[in-house]
Design a protein that fits this description.
mainly alpha, 71% helix, globular, 3% strand, 278 residues
């Protein structure tokens, strides 16, 4: 039982990975060991496919609402989209006090996209992976935000924008002064550089790893609860109740994590634009 339980958990936590196989050819890993052996030069196809697909769903829905928007009585979908747009716009205005037309659309994209990726966690854990296995696909993880490659890719993209706007708004010298001459006097520049460097590097880590850690833990709880379904009628009913309760609570988590990622993005970019001390 222990072996089958471990295999069940490992199967649900393994990505469909494409890369170089042990014989030197390219293909999909058939075991978790093969996936791990592929190393850096591999790609988690399921994470990429689901994240890109959900991004297209987001773009399609919002574009459709934008083109069909009416000044009359709006429908439910238009109401929902307008509420999200207004919410993100108000949040951005309350944090970001500079002129940059990119920030609000970026925050909106991050919030909705991350929310949709997180939302996949509410689909019962066995449905899609089991169906994929029946079709000959060995692994299928459907929650892109449980893959650190996805969350850190988004975080590093935001980090690149932080560096770009820090240099653009403060100048290369100004940005270097900010790193070397704060918070202590200039004579302690090496100490300041270490402290500010750690603070700077912590920004993408706080974005990517926070999202990954929370969603991975949530997915693991769903998987552990699903193990109860095969342990008898009593455990099946108890597991169903737990699954429902955790799903209800998880709605808050997936929304909160999307909001935190968007808000931290706004905060970090606002700091990059802040040149008042220079």
């Amino acid at each position: 039982m222990a072996g089958s339980t471990a295999e069940y958990i490992q199967h649900h936590l393994t990505n469909l990975t494409f890369g170089q196989l042990p014989d030197g050819t390219l293909g999909f890993a058939q075991t978790a060991e093969e996936a791990a052996a592929m190393g850096f030069w591999s790609i988690n196809v399921d994470s990429m496919a689901w994240s890109i697909g959900l991004g297209l769903v987001f773009a399609f829905i919002f574009r459709r609402v934008a083109t069909a928007a009416t000044a009359g009585v709006p429908g439910g979908l238009q109401n929902g989209v307008e509420m999200i747009v207004e919410f993100i716009e108000e949040t951005t205005d309350s944090i970001f006090h500079h002129k940059n037309d990119l920030i609000a659309p970026l925050a909106l994209t991050i919030f909705v996209w991350v929310f949709l990726m997180n939302l996949m966690d509410l689909i019962p854990v066995d449905w899609i992976p089991h169906t994929a296995q029946l079709l000959g696909v060995p692994y299928m993880k459907i929650v892109p935000s449980t893959d650190p490659n996805i969350t850190m890719a988004m975080a590093l993209t935001v980090f690149a924008l932080i560096l770009f706007y820090s240099i653009k708004c403060k100048g290369g010298i100004g940005f270097l002064k900010e790193l070397c001459f704060h918070p202590f006097p200039p004579i302690m520049a090496p100490v300041n550089l270490i402290l500010e460097g750690v603070t700077l590097i912590a920004k993408p880590l706080s974005l990517g790893l926070r999202l990954f850690g929370n969603m991975y833990a949530g997915e693991m709880i769903f998987i552990l609860i699903a193990l109860m379904f095969g342990a008898g009628a009593v455990y099946f009913v108890f597991g169903g109740v737990l699954q429902w309760l955790w799903a209800v609570f998880h709605v808050l988590i997936i929304t909160l994590q999307a909001f935190i990622f968007a808000v931290l993005t706004i905060v970090y970019l606002a700091q990059a634009h802040d040149v008042e001390e220079h």
